[in-house]
Amino acid sequence: MSAAQAAAKPARREAKRSPTPRAIMFHRETLRAKIAALHDAIQNDPSETTDSLRAGALGLLRQSLSHGRGIARRTLESNGGGLECASNLAYIEDELIRAIHDYVVTYVHPAPAGGASRECAIAAVGGYGRATLAPGSDIDLLFLIPADAPERGELVVGAILYMLWDLGQKVGYATRTVEECVAEAKADMTIRTSLLETRFLLGDRSLFKSMKSRFDREILRGDATDFVAAKLAERDARISRRGRSRYLVEPNVKEGKGGLRDLNTLYWIAKYVYRVEDASDLVGVGLFSRAEYRLFCRCEEYLWRVRCHLHFLTERPEERLSFDLQRQIADRLGYSTRNGLASVERFMKHYFLIAKDVGDLTAIVCAALEEKQAKPYPMLDRVFGPFPRNQEFAVTGDFSIGHGRVTVAAPDVFARDPVNLIRLFWVADRNGLAIHPDATRLVTLSLKRIDARLRANPEANRLFLQILTSRNTPEIVLRLMNEAGVLGRFVPEFGRIVALMQFNMYHHYTVDEHLLRAVGNLSDIEKQRHPNEHPLANEVVSSISNRTAVVLALFLHDIAKGRMEDHSIAGMEVARALCPRLGLSAADTETVAWLVETHLIMSDTAQRRDLGDRTTIATFAKCVQTLERLKMLFIMTICDIRAVGPGVWNNWKGGLLRTLYWETEVILAGGHSTIDHKTRVFDARAELRSALPNWSDLDFEAYAARHPQAYWLKADLPQKILHAKLLNMTEVEMPAPVTDVSVNRSWGVTEMTVIAPDHPHLLSLIAGACAAASANIVDAQVFTTTDGVALNTIFITRAFDYDDDEIRRADRIAYSIERALKGGVDMDAIVAAAKSSYASSIPKSFRVHPEVSINNSLSGRFTVVEVSGLDRPGLLYELTSAISRLGLNIGSAHIATFGEKAADVFYVTDFAGAKITSPIEHEFIRSRLLETFANPIGAAGA
């Protein structure tokens, strides 16, 4: 059984049904009769013109086209097949083109009297040439015209095209002679590919046969190496554009890795190399087994079904399975919530397993092509990056090195010793070599040998632990194990989260892919591949005494996702069961279990707590308890955040984690906290002093005295330099707010710094100005000098690709902020008006239950108010305005956005500077903040 078969199946099973009779969809003879009747009526009416006939014919054609597509759509939506739908749409298009041709050669350009005339041959090419058509796809046509008499053919072609365009058809076409077809196919691989799948529609069949005969003789019978190389290079480039992982949570059904285009590419290559006419012929030439061909058909059917639903649902050629569409497609395909997984998560798990099966088929074809020497041997480096290669290969008698890759020495190696199913990957890791697809194929046929006995085998567990903790590139080998199905069977808990998508906008990958990337990130840190991003981590990682515990915790930290209970608690229990099996001691097992249980605490504390508050550090240190645990949790947190997706990690988060680490290290080291704290502040001040060589010592000391000690450890050096420059511009008094803008392409955000006199409504006004300018705040930092000047750093989502455009936009936002801070504007009205003119980037399918918690134990001076809920434009302004109206003063704010979820924390006091202690006041604050989610500014009736 394939991975796709084992996936969660739709709750509503397919009904056995016969295809819809095609004559019902589009009856060309009836249409021909109606046009003839219309022609006769117009001929008998002197007031009518030729244009009347054309307009009437177009109306009849449009009606027939709409009728046919409506039947195809209803058939699909009543649980019809995807390929059936694509085939029906192609049939409708065939009949439409034939009907238009009949009309043109009968009424527009009839054949000359007295004899036959050669016109042209019309052929479908590309996907349409395979007799499949998606609802929103282009119609790709080849018009073959005779070289000796092209005039009439060109007239007919032009008339047909104008009719198609007037019907709203998107047509891709070429008009060529046979000689031109052959010449251009020799010069252009794209044209060669399109001609590979030509299908005769109508016209001069002898002309079409001549083209096919010459194409076969002069193109297909040549060397296939160039064609194969070009198609594989094209695939690599396409996948790089769409994202190299097939487990991106918003996959592209057509162009993404594991999508329909991959299946098309396999077929094009196989057809070119093996010269088959149909995919079923791939069994006869030995490329696929019957089971693999059935898998090919299942993958194709499933992807076509999803694609057709996508196009019909959006009424456009949408290929990206975006969040706002996934839930609707899941409903249309009949998925239901089951076993703790929402219907949309079960649907996407099935989708990703199909994408994995497409990858398996790709490997099979590539292996066969190598045997025929139709493609070069692959290099693991090309796909995965640098991989160590040893001079002497470490192999056993059951394995050998073939074509630079590990392969099996005999077909019975796994039957004779099932441990070899793990040992194969161990050999690959030790030698830094890829695994031959034939060996992987044999692995997938032997997966049933991975049973309870093998999972309990000490040697198998020893080898697996060595793979997992390898200092080479374990992410690569673990991914190979996962793709082959070994990892999920050897560690069944991991098998439960294979291809599991978390339906949120924060995580970019499936859970299994996230875990493998987290393990790979540890190797990156150890090899210092990102030295500027992780200056402290590069030092800390080498001093960890229990590296194995960190690796296992990274591998297991999200392994219990998708269950009813908290994944951290459930994951801890998984760790306690698995670690002894892998040979860990009781103490090491508890360390791994603790890391899994608490893997979110450092990230949460760094991003959502005031690190300048000593209570924050003391609470965190009490949880961590030892310096060794702090080191492990620090490294693990970095690896986890980096594995979430592109752009999630940034230098600001790195700075927060470093500050939390340093402050906690002081407490856990014991006895030197005051000295060490002062030393780090002194070093930070000295660092800034060196960066300001033109300042006098007196000026610098006066400036440095304006900042509290917490500032020196929380802000990074570039921020400190910018703040010094901006504050120096204000001198003693600040006549107006000062703003600064910088763009960051790699992070996808624009950073805005605002310096203004501090007052209770400051953050609210800044947030309101951003909302009014359609700027979405994703993060914010707030610092306040000892003389009452606020330094606010706001991170907004980038809107333009080019820096110049983004800077102009940011300057407009900065002007709005300055205008708001000067007063005299009705911010509520401005925000409400702006919100009505632009939409949120959060799909409507997301639902986040709003929560408000109020705590007085998290800070010595402030009441901590935590607010979470569905993010939307203007939310921060609404929350901060509500807090101000409640008579509260915001001492610091920690703004975090995790995809569609806003998770904001405000440290507040009353206007007298005291905590809010009354339970009645707590409930009042909570109810007012929850009302913000129920009645947003600008909503009807608000």
From TrEMBL:
Q: What InterPro entries has UniProt attached to this entry?
A: ACT-like_dom_sf (IPR045865), ACT_dom (IPR002912), HD/PDEase_dom (IPR003607), HD_domain (IPR006674), NT_sf (IPR043519), PII_UdlTrfase/GS_AdlTrfase (IPR013546), Polymerase_NTP_transf_dom (IPR002934), UTase/UR (IPR010043)
GO annotation, biological process: regulation of nitrogen utilization
The EC number on file is 2.7.7.59, 3.1.4.-
Q: How is its activity regulated?
A: Uridylyltransferase (UTase) activity is inhibited by glutamine, while glutamine activates uridylyl-removing (UR) activity.
Region Disordered: start and end of each range? 1-22
Q: Which SUPFAM superfamilies match?
A: ACT-like, Nucleotidyltransferase, Nucleotidyltransferase substrate binding subunit/domain, Poly A polymerase C-terminal region-like
The segment(s) forming the ACT domain are: 751-833, 864-942
- TM annotation in the entry: none
Sorted keywords for this record are: Hydrolase, Magnesium, Multifunctional enzyme, Nucleotidyltransferase, Repeat, Transferase
- Name any cofactors this protein relies on: Mg(2+)
Residue ranges of every copy of the HD domain listed in the record? 511-633
Question: Superkingdom of the source?
Answer: Bacteria
- MF GO annotations: [protein-PII] uridylyltransferase activity; phosphoric diester hydrolase activity
Q: Where is this region: Uridylyltransferase?
A: 1-394
As its record notes, the protein acts as a catalyst of: [protein-PII]-L-tyrosine + UTP = [protein-PII]-uridylyl-L-tyrosine + diphosphate; [protein-PII]-uridylyl-L-tyrosine + H2O = [protein-PII]-L-tyrosine + UMP + H(+)
Q: What is known of its domains?
A: Has four distinct domains: an N-terminal nucleotidyltransferase (NT) domain responsible for UTase activity, a central HD domain that encodes UR activity, and two C-terminal ACT domains that seem to have a role in glutamine sensing.
Q: What does this protein do?
A: Modifies, by uridylylation and deuridylylation, the PII regulatory proteins (GlnB and homologs), in response to the nitrogen status of the cell that GlnD senses through the glutamine level. Under low glutamine levels, catalyzes the conversion of the PII proteins and UTP to PII-UMP and PPi, while under higher glutamine levels, GlnD hydrolyzes PII-UMP to PII and UMP (deuridylylation). Thus, controls uridylylation state and activity of the PII proteins, and plays an important role in the regulation of nitrogen metabolism.
| Stated family | Belongs to the GlnD family.
Task: Please give the name of this protein.
Answer: Bifunctional uridylyltransferase/uridylyl-removing enzyme
Q: Which organism is it from?
A: Methylocapsa palsarum
